[in-house]
């Protein structure tokens, strides 16, 4: 109800209204919802002005950005195979499970297994 009939170009004002309107502030659900609406408002403004959002926010800061990829799987062989595929499409940085079944690395065997998996990846 807070946004219906409001001017979508008043992005900062609407953000403040959404954030301050409720009793509970700043939780992950509220902030995720506000973030989605905020992105939509910037997209609307960009379309109205026929300009990409990055230009509305001040232009380029850098020419490229390094990205990493998540490698799913609990078994070392699956992780290693997944990384091979991702390397083929250009990734060189990865986030992965350090142990099987997303457990704790709380003993020397688990540490050795994680080190062995990383060694095979390198």
Question: Can you count the helices?
Answer: 5
Low-confidence stretches: none
> Into which percent range does the helicity of residues fall?
40-55%
Structural class based on helices, strands and sheet pairing: mainly alpha
Please, how many domains? 2
Strand order of the largest sheet: 1-2
The number of strands is 2
Rounded to the nearest angstrom, the radius of gyration is 22 Å
**Termini gap:** 53 Å
Average pLDDT level: 89
How would you characterize the largest beta sheet? Answer: 2 strands, parallel
Polypeptide structure, described:
This is D-galactonate dehydratase. One of its GO terms (molecular function) is lyase activity. Keywords: Lyase. It comes from Escherichia coli. The protein is mostly helical and 122 residues long. Strands 1-2 form a two-stranded parallel ribbon. The protein has two domains: 46 residues, no CATH class; 53 residues, no CATH class. It is built from five helices and two strands, in the order αααβαβα. The N and C termini lie far apart (53 Å). The radius of gyration is 22 Å and the shape is elongated. Helix 1 packs antiparallel against helix 2. The model has no long low-confidence stretch (mean pLDDT 89). The longest helix has 22 residues.
Summary keywords:
122 residues, mainly alpha, 2 domains, two-stranded parallel ribbon, 5 helices, 2 strands, 5% strand, elongated
